[in-house]
Amino acid sequence: MEKTILKTKDLTMIFGGLTAVSKLNLDIKENQIYGLIGPNGAGKTTAFNMITGVYMPTEGEVVFDGVDISKYKPNKITNLGVARTFQNIRLFSTMTVIENVMVARHLRMGANLPEAILRLPSYKKKHQESYDEAMELLKKVDLEKEAGELATSLPYGKQRRLEIARALATTPKLLLLDEPAAGMNPQESIELMNFIAKIRDQFSLTILMIEHHMQVVMGICEKITVLDYGQSIAIGNPEEIQNNQRVIEAYLGVE
Amino acid sequence: MTIDAFLQHLANGISLGSLYALIAIGYTMVYGILRLINFAHGEIFMLSTYVALYGVALFTLPWQLAFLLAILITGLMGVLIEKAAYSPLRESPKMSVLISAIGISFFLQNLGLVIFTGRPKTFPRPDFFAKMYDFGGIKIMSLTFVIPIVAAIFLGILVFLVNKTKMGMAMRAVSKDFETARLMGIDVDKVISYTFFIGSALAAVGGIMWGMKFPRIDPLLGLLPGLKCFIAAVVGGIGSITGAVIGGFFLGLGEIMLVAFFPEFSGYRDAFAFVLLIIILLVKPTGIIGEKMTEKV
Amino acid sequence: MEYSKLKKILTISSFFLLIALIYFAPNFLNDYAIRILNLSAIYVILAVSLNLTNGFTGLFSLGHAGFMSIGAYTTALLLMTEKTKIMNFYMYDIWPPLQGITLHLIPSLLMGGTLAAIFAVVIGAPTLKLRGDYLAIATLGFGEIIRVIFTNSHSITNGALGLKGIPGVTNLWWNWGIAALVILIVKNILDSSYGFAFKAIRDDEIAAESMGINIFKYKLMSFVISAFFAGIGGGLLAVLLSTIDPIMFRFVFTYQFLMIVVIGGLGSLTGSVISGIFITIMMEVLRFVEQPMNLGPIAIPGIPGMRMVIYSLILLFVILFYQKGIMGTNEFSWKWIIKKIGLGKFIKKEAAEQ
């Protein structure tokens, strides 16, 4: 039996009378690539925000690796091993590519402020290690040549990759990708799919992704949950989802 | 404390509270729409007293006309400040706009010092406001009654403008969601100008009455009341007009009562507002009636 | 020549050049000019510390004057001799335990900085969890509360009378030495992963939090460090001026440092240093507009206060038309200078430059 890494129980978010997500139940196994799909405004990003602690759920629980994290702050959740990217890329705009990744290494570095101020050898060593690790990650996402450039000067596709590299630098067990293929052409989408599969294996990750490109979702996800108006309307593997009548209705709309 | 003395303090507190409320509204309206602390609001308030003073003393206009003109001119100055210092920065980081607001505030203070000099001037108090009434031993000046009445009238006008006119509706729409309002075809810049006009005009109403209540005016006059009234707006619930009024009265009455009941703390009167601010931020950061504003992710 | 070697040579030689400048300054500068140089060192400290919060961490703090006053009063009271204290406190008696204490400069300054830092925790803890705007207003408010308290606690601060005759134990060496130390410390923080965390919070709080950074903790850290150095700057200012009173530290005083930071570039250490020196000197030079002038047949009367008008106009001009200020978020580097003067081709390319 595979181990469950993320479980949500009746996860609900209500914004001033408007129910954005209602009683969402997810059960994600270790090493799975899991898709969360649905029409615009279905509550997918809200679900992400609850899992990562940006929003406090109105009701329900989020259990990660056996720990109830529903009331944790985002930074604490990251420290437990959940990382994410954002729908509208949120890079640190005034920092270079490598600095963006090194920010994510800061917590794992374990350096204290006095040794940083005094530039003690112990700090220099840790800083160098962090730099090397960040460089290693950049190599893996093929961005090492851009290491010294300003993050926001990169083209769109590279910014997406950098955001993933930055998330990986927090050494996650679970990675949440919010529309990683947004704005990509079919060719780029296929490359992205391969890339996601590759990092899953390399870093032994579990991946939960929101995506609109059906080609990507169906091609890579092992299990899918479909949200519509905050409700989960279908769960299954890609084939089951493609043939599900309610899903088709939700996407095409019914009179 | 005798009941007479208490009533006197109460009357004082209510009239000071009315003034704070009038000034606080300008802060809350601007914050509601632009999410900006308009640091120059205190200086707008200060300028209104000088405009009224010059109208009466230099141009020897009848006080009714001078005061009315001062209210209009101050309103226009508010619009002008927004156009010059805030609207060019609509797309800039928030910190830039705040700094620009501080720059304008600092500029007007110093310009005031150059033009009006630092020596305090005496604000005229027309006889109408200076009649003394005797209520069985308590002497109260007519001004003390006039202030809350005038404040109530202008608040009534404001409530009407915001709730019953098309522009008022547009203002509420913009403060709810700037971008959507723009997409709906609302002329956001016009709404902002209108907001600045109303906020500044109300500050002028407050300023003129302030001048009559405390007739020594100087160019740094706006500094402390400005800051205090922003705090009043925060205490009441920033973004809400009702909140600003509640906060204004809360602060005005609180200050007067502090000095009345604990005369030994009178030196700390100016710190009262700030202590209140810290307490409210700790206990209920959204203010007495405020709603939470969240960021979209 | 290899760049790293060249860099070392240039840095060391400019360091000695500065030392020589300070050493020989009294020979060719009058007392007034030296006083301005001292003042600019202090303003550099204050600008650098304000830039740490407002420029690098994206916090909008306006409490510098308050933190400075804590540092100034603490330093002054610890430095003054018992005799001077008794002469000062002729209206009210000084709080007895304070009367007998006289310390040296360094412990006095450290004490001033530490007290300012403690107050920063008190003010930062409730407000830094809230929306950014509240920090601005709460720090302003705090500055005023401190001023009101200092005006009223006669037995400690001598109230509105202020303190006179603070021993002038500093000189160019002290002021510039401490300024250099502060710059170095702040630079080391900014170049470390702590600095990266600060900048990440400035650029995007939500993304920073998702990197595992406890934003409240790091904001508080930046705020407290900034307050500590503001306290030290305030202490040095008290020593230089020899007289302080509560009115000096009104919140508009903070605006001056805000201007220095903005003009130098929010988020540039180099900018704060350049602009701190430049603005301090300019403010003195501009005194001429306040003095009456005789240009042959024309006599121009001086306009008191005009200096500050010009000053605030410059700030508005910069923020409206040239938001980057002098340096933007760039920092000084020898490489940049060498390239600028057209000698770039003499530097060997190095493979992996960090």
Q: What does the model show?
A:
The complex is a heterotrimer of chains A (255), B (297) and C (354). Chain A has 255 residues and is of the alpha/beta class. Helices cover 40% and strands 24% of the residues of chain A. In chain A, the strands form 2 sheets. Chain A has a 6-stranded mixed β-sheet with strand order 6-7-8-3-9-10, with helices on both faces. Chain A has a 4-stranded antiparallel β-sheet with strand order 2-1-4-5, covered by helices on one side. In chain A, a hairpin with a 2-residue loop joins strand 4 (59-64) and strand 5. Chain A starts with a strand and ends with a helix. Chain B contains 12 helices and 4 strands. In chain B, a hairpin with a 2-residue loop joins strand 2 (132-135) and strand 3. Chain B has 297 residues and is mainly alpha-helical. Chain B has a single domain, classed as ABC transporter involved in vitamin B12 uptake, BtuC. Chain C has a domain at 32-251. The longest helix of chain C has 27 residues, at 31-57. In chain C, a hairpin with a 2-residue loop joins strand 3 (293-295) and strand 4. With 354 residues, chain C is mainly alpha-helical. Chain C is 69% helix and 3% strand. Chain C starts with a helix and ends in a 14-residue tail after the last helix. In chain C, the strands form 2 sheets. A two-stranded antiparallel ribbon of chain C has the order 1-2. Chain C has a two-stranded antiparallel sheet with strand order 3-4. At the A-C interface, helix 2, helix 3, helix 4 and helix 5 of A face helix 9, helix 10 and helix 11 of C.
- Which of globular, elongated, flat, extended, rod-shaped describes the shape of chain B? globular
Measured between the Cα atoms of the first and last residue of chain B, the distance is 56 Å
Rounded to the nearest angstrom, the distance between the terminal CA atoms of chain A is: 43 Å
**What are the low-pLDDT stretches of chain A, counting only 5+ consecutive residues below 50?**
none
Based on helices, strands and strand pairing, what is the structural class of chain A? alpha/beta
Determine the fraction of residues in helical runs of chain A and give it as a percent range.
40-55%
The interface involving the most residues is between: B-C, 45 and 47 residues
Beta-strand percentage of chain B? under 5%
Helix percentage of chain B? over 70%
CATH second-level architecture of chain B:
Orthogonal Bundle
Helical segment count of chain A:
10
Low-confidence stretches of chain B: none
Please provide the ordered H/E string of secondary-structure elements of chain B: HHHHEHEEHHHHEHHH
Number of strands of chain A: 10
How would you classify the helix and strand content of chain B by structural class?
Answer: mainly alpha
H and E string of chain A: EEEHEEHEHHHHEHEHEEHH
Main β-sheet description of chain B: 2 strands, antiparallel
Shape of chain A: globular
